[in-house]
Amino acid sequence: MTAQNRDEAFLEKVRRTLDTSVDNIDTGIQLRLGRIRKEVLWNEKHKKSRFRQRFLVPVTGVAAVLVALLASILYFDGPSRLQQIDYVEDVEMLASGDSLEFYANLDFYAWLAKEEQNVR
Fold it and tell me: What pTM was computed for the model?
């Protein structure tokens, strides 16, 4: 007989002995073991849900903080009011029917207005 066959024969003998002893257990002990089994299963079920709850609460909190941080960054980093006014002025210039030659020399006219203010 090889070592593997001996191990299998031993395991089969142990299995038969345990099965026979289980069949001969007193009814009171069987009921008590059944109650213990149900209690253990119930505890395991609720233990997993407690783990989920303990894990999800911090994760949800971190996610909420990150969303708030992202929203504040996007809100405060958006275009300023002055930039928006510049865009409105640009659109008004393009939408008006005025000649674009005036706007080509706008820097000159701005310089001229500044010089007139300095002379006064």
Answer: 0.29
Residue 93 near residue 103 (C-beta atoms within 8 A)? yes
5 and 13 in contact (C-beta within 8 Å)?
Answer: no
For the record, the structure tokens of 36 come out as 């213990």
Q: How many CB atoms lie within 10 A of CB 103?
A: 14
Burial of 54 (0-12, 13-18, 19+ CB in 10 A): exposed
- Range with the lowest mean pLDDT among 8-17, 46-55, 77-86? 77-86
Reported as a single tens digit per residue, the pLDDT across 86-103 is 677 767 777 776 666 776
Name which of 116, 92, 115, 118 is nearest 103 in CA terms.
92
Centre a 10 Å sphere on the Cβ of residue 93 and count the other Cβ atoms it contains: 13
| Dist CA 54 CA 56 (whole Å) | 6
